[in-house]
Amino acid sequence: MEINKSCFLFCLFLWFSLQILIANAEVHYHDFVVHAKPVKRLCHTRSIITVNGQFPGPTLKVRNGDSLVVKVVNQAKYNITIHWHGIRQMRNGWADGPAYVTQCPIQPGGTYTYRFNIENQEGTLWWHAHSSWLRATVYGALIILPKKDSSYPFATPKREFPVILGEWWNSNPIDVIRQALKTGGAPNNSDAFTINGQPGDLYKCSSKETTVFPVGPGETVLLRLINAAMVTELFFSVADHKMTVVAADASYTKPFTTSVILLGPGQTTDVLIQTNQPAGRYYLAAHAYESGPPNTPFDNTTTTAILSYENQITSTQPKPAALPAFNDTATAAAFTADIKSPRPVKIPGPVNENLFFTVGLGLYNCPPRKTCSGPNGTRFTASMNNYSFVLPKQQSLLQAAQFGIPGVFTTDFPATPPVKFDYTGNNISPSLYQPVKATKLYPLKYGSVVQLVIQGTNIYASEEHPMHIHGYEFYVLATGTGNFNAKKDTAKFNLVDPPRRNTIGVPVKGWAVIRFVADNPGVWFVHCHIDSHLTWGLAMAFLVENGVGKLQSTIPPPPDLPKC
């Protein structure tokens, strides 16, 4: 047994070394020590889970072609995993991170080392916990610079800053979601939004720690925007400064100028600003985009940071930033429509997997002799194609798939909704409100070209769903409102310069169409990045089969892969 383990480690070392030599790149080693730390926000001190005592966690900066080796030591009282959001993890799902999908969680006192390569990606991504609601405080930026012999496809900025938008609860976020699951109601609203961990001047007990970005006059500044909020899409703006969008989800875009950015949870956007205004102090601000029904409760506060020109008196009141109305769906749709690839792209084809997935909420009847806090005494749930996803507990899905362990999942997730209905209508049958709980995967042949229509539903209520696919980037061919109609909506497809993303907002009472090649074998999670929806079951997973030979097959698991 020891000989086999030693042989495996040697082979893994050789494989890893070969990848590095091929890329002529660097290996970056990091230790992530996960532990609790007392933090004061909004006049309250509470213990939060952090990485290395930092909130937000460490910013990792690498180059395209580099490799990362991150040893995670769990000194917290909760199980944890780390997901490297947007990293493709080619053939290496073991490093992807979602608990019970590609690995069992790292238990308290345990360790696990994530080893992975950055292959043909550059821009702004991020990392976060992917177990329960720990990502409320366990997150950080992952910045991928161009290779040393390359450069940005835009003017080199004088300065650049990660701008991480977060969401803060005065209560322990784990308790917040546990209470929601116990009662069947929605989680309590957050108490604040944050920029780089600080709420900003508009909240009590916060102005002394407001995040400040120092700049000089006449500079080009790159802001790397990340929405790390748990349940809220956010509008963002900078007072008196236009922004030029140059990348989204670590893919370069055709530059366009805007005064407002929309980011769903999980999404990133790189913008350039010119410091061409009179020397002073200017607010950066973010607040909710609330796409749900008019009476939906939400956090309606505004987080701020300060863009401060050099040598400014700190007592000078910053200029306010204008933001759209909370429910400004027109602005949200217009911003999304402006994002395009910088040049014509070769669209994958022909399509041999035509899929149609519904996404939305649902309501379970309250169990007998129980009191439930959902609408009309029900319990909230969520589903895709009327199946509410259930995570396994004894094995991860990837382990079960790799080693043929029976009884963990089935491979009969439907390619289309089992029941066709007026998805965005107002008179949906109550029989559709209660999805079936299951652990169903959809199998894909290696190399197949997948076109997926993601259709929002109005079961109970409709809102925008930021849908994320692990291990993949995809082209967004179109988005629209109402029920997708292939006969008329196919004409709206952008087959010239569609944007490439890893997370796409499916419009409220609308749809999105994406296309990608299934060239990464393994089990890859597909889910809404609003974490209450994910917790309720708005998820599924693709099982991408191995192709021919080792270069088209999932690599063996590392020996330190955690056990359940």
From TrEMBL:
Q: Which UniProt keywords apply?
A: Apoplast, Copper, Lignin degradation, Metal-binding, Oxidoreductase, Repeat, Secreted, Signal
Looking at the Swiss-Prot or TrEMBL record, what is one Pfam family this protein matches? Cu-oxidase_2
Highest taxon above the source species: Eukaryota
What does the Swiss-Prot or TrEMBL cofactor note state?
Binds 4 Cu cations per monomer.
What Enzyme Commission number does this protein have? 1.10.3.2
Sections of the chain in a coiled coil: none
Q: Which GO terms describe its cellular component?
A: apoplast
What does the UniProt entry say about where the protein is found? Secreted, Extracellular space, Apoplast
Concerning InterPro entries, the annotation shows: Cu-oxidase-like_N (IPR011707), Cu-oxidase_2nd (IPR001117), Cu-oxidase_C (IPR011706), Cu-oxidase_fam (IPR045087), Cu_oxidase_CS (IPR033138), Cu_oxidase_Cu_BS (IPR002355), Cupredoxin (IPR008972), CuRO_1_LCC (IPR034288)
Q: Which residues form the Plastocyanin-like domain?
A: 35-148, 160-311, 412-546
* GO biological processes: lignin catabolic process
UniProt main location, coarse = secreted
Residue ranges crossing the lipid bilayer per the database entry? none
Q: Provide the cofactor list for this protein.
A: Cu cation
* Molecular-function GO term, any one: copper ion binding
Question: Which transformation does this protein catalyse, written as a reaction?
Answer: 4 hydroquinone + O2 = 4 benzosemiquinone + 2 H2O
**CDD domains assigned:** CuRO_1_LCC_plant (cd13849), CuRO_2_LCC_plant (cd13875), CuRO_3_LCC_plant (cd13897)
Question: Mind telling me which NCBIfam families this protein's record contains?
Answer: laccase
Question: Can you tell me which family this protein belongs to?
Answer: Belongs to the multicopper oxidase family.
Function statement:
Lignin degradation and detoxification of lignin-derived products.
Question: What's this protein's name?
Answer: Laccase
Give the species.
Answer: Dendrobium chrysotoxum (Orchid)
What taxonomic ancestry is recorded?
Eukaryota, Viridiplantae, Streptophyta, Embryophyta, Tracheophyta
